Amino acid sequence: MEKDQKRENHKGITVNVASYTYVSISCCCFDILSQRTRNPFRDDEYLPISSDSSIPVCGLPRVRVTGIPEQKENVGRESPDKFDVLVQIKAPSMSEYPEHPLKRAPIDLVMVLDINERVDAIMLAHIRNSVCFAIDNLGELDRLSIAWSCPRRIFPLRRMTEKGRKYTKQIVRAHVFADGPTDAVEILMTAARILEQRRYRNTAAFIIILSNRKEPPASSTNREEPLDYLDKLPDSIYPYPEANNAKRDVFPVYSFGIGVDHEPVALHTLSSTTGGTYSFVETTEILQDAIAYCIGNLLAVVNVDFSITFTRGTAEVVLVDVKAGDYYTIVRGKGSSGDIKVQNLFADETLSFLIDVAVNRRTVERMESHLILDWKYKDAVVSSGVGEVQYRCTIDLHPISNIAEVELNRKRTLLLGADWIDNALKIAEAKGVKDAKNFLFTECRNCSDSVYMWILERIREVARRMAAEDGMVRTGWQAFGLSTLSACDTQRAATTGSRAQGAEFDPFGTPNTVAMVTKSRSVQN
After folding, report:
1. Are the CB atoms for 65 and 391 separated by under 8 Å?
2. pLDDT at 64
3. Given its phi and psi angles, is residue 498 left (phi above 0), alpha (psi -120 to 50 degrees) or beta?
């Protein structure tokens, strides 16, 4: 606004030609210097204009959405007072874009290296190799910038062409980390400004932060204490809850806490608030696999701005609650409608949400629609000529199949397991680690460990680490619990502890995450 006023003021000045030329140059120089002062990060590398040919909406791969109501074969015509509806979202595969060279959306990525003096030569080598692995897997249309612990950028957003990758890796190999404490707020604000002030924009943008910032004293387990500095961050990386309603940029933060004594709470909160994941990397030996596990998703964005609206089909239906983890949800009008908002969809992933529905009458018509689902999104791969697309389906109470019942129960178990871990962390804050450990051991004994071994193994591991920790020995139990929560709440790949999942069973893995971890391990062997 100031710049516009200055220009208007000078338009009214009557001077001779020589003076006018001088004044115009002075104003121009002032404007440029002022703009650089206000927007010092508007030096990102130019993006070529997309050469995608326009493709009609009907020719694009579709996001598949299904609604599975909880209804047994023997219920008959009588409607239950309350039941769950499992909503499943299945993103298209990259192979469904055979004509597109990239088969995914190009990204803008800022990597934040919040690493301090506790790095020896071996750890430094692992960190550098991990960052270089990420660089090697970025494409020519992807752009990267790195912010480090000075705080400042190492270089602006630049395309990862062959020349760009070579230049970037040379800088990373020569980089020396800070010798003392670093300012987390300044580093993160730098990362946010790089993306906020860029002139050119790829379809999706992310921040990855690697941090070995120390945990508070062992006597403190309060998850609120380390969060004070987050309030100083901009909305783009630490939005207030109501900001999710606004049409504004929020950049998902994918954080990696390194070591058993790093500070996990702020990292988890930052990721949870923005829609990213928090990973616990117990040793730097697995850092490259952990980053591979993450970028396997980031380099597979196929849809953006996905949201789903659910509306009751009749006045007798009330929407009670929505279980969607970290994703933004709202129920409006005393249970008449609601929304779930998902920022990006990664290729081949399946997201599942539970909607609690109550019916105010005992008998309903068999074919009567209980719930209406409307969803919309943008295709992120083929952008030319393609805007937002919308679809709709209706849900009535029909008998549930055995396969659908397994999916419904599986989702409930993962939600329940995440609740147990969350409650254990709260008990640790209020009553101490011993009571939290006893709570988890009790819950484990009450559970079946058949197809739900993944979540149960993590519950047992949190309890084991709690039991092993004392005032002198750190086990990372809080970090392990929070990284498990992050995976469950986002339904996306996150590393928990001493090994990235890779080819092992993971309920949230995709072909792309598995392939990237396999590639990482083959490079290291």
Report:
1. yes
2. 94
3. alpha
| Cis, bond preceding 106 (omega within 30 deg of 0) | no
Half-sphere exposure of 521 (CA within 13 A, CB side): 13
Q: Each residue of 338-368: pLDDT tens digit?
A: 999 998 999 999 999 999 988 865 555 555 6
Range scoring the smallest mean pLDDT among 159-163, 171-175, 203-207: 171-175
Q: How far is CA 176 from CA 112, 146, 188, in A?
A: 14, 13, 19
Beta-carbon count within 10 A of 287 CB: 25
What is the pTM assigned to this prediction? 0.86
The CA R_g of the chain, rounded to the nearest whole Å, is 25
- Residue 76, number of CB atoms within 10 A of its CB: 10
What are 359's strand-pairing partners? 317
What is the residue extent of each domain of the chain?
A: 2-38, 60-100+302-400, 107-299+408-524
Is residue 519 classed as helix, strand or coil in its secondary structure? helix
The predicted pLDDT at position 138 comes to: 97
Structure tokens at 425: 């962390």
Q: Which amino acid is at 173?
A: R
- DSSP secondary structure of 45-102: PPPPPP-PPP--GGGS---EEEEEE---GGGTTBPPSEEEEEEEEEPPPGGG-TT-SS
The two three-digit tokens of residue 481, written as one number: 């619990």
Average pLDDT score over the chain: 80
CATH for 60-100+302-400, among 3.30.450.40, 2.60.40.1530, 3.60.15.10, 3.40.50.970?
A: 2.60.40.1530
Distance from C-alpha of 132 to C-alpha of 130, rounded to nearest angstrom: 5
Instruction: Please name the fold of domain 107-299+408-524.
Output: Rossmann fold (3.40.50)
What is the distance, to the nearest Å, from the Cα of residue 239 to the centroid of all Cα atoms in its chain? 13
- Encode 198-227: b = buried (16+ Cβ within 10 Å), e = exposed: beeebbbbbbbbbbbbebeeeeebebeebe
For residues 26 and 142, which has the higher predicted lDDT (pLDDT)? 142
Q: Stretch 156-168: mean pLDDT, rounded?
A: 95
pLDDT for 10 equals 32
Q: Bridge partners of 176?
A: none
Q: What is the pLDDT of residues 36-90, one digit of tens each?
A: 445 677 888 999 876 555 556 667 889 999 988 876 544 445 556 788 888 999 9
CA 325 from centre of chain: 12
Is the predicted pLDDT of residue 260 greater than 60, yes or no? yes
Residue with tokens 């630490």: 238
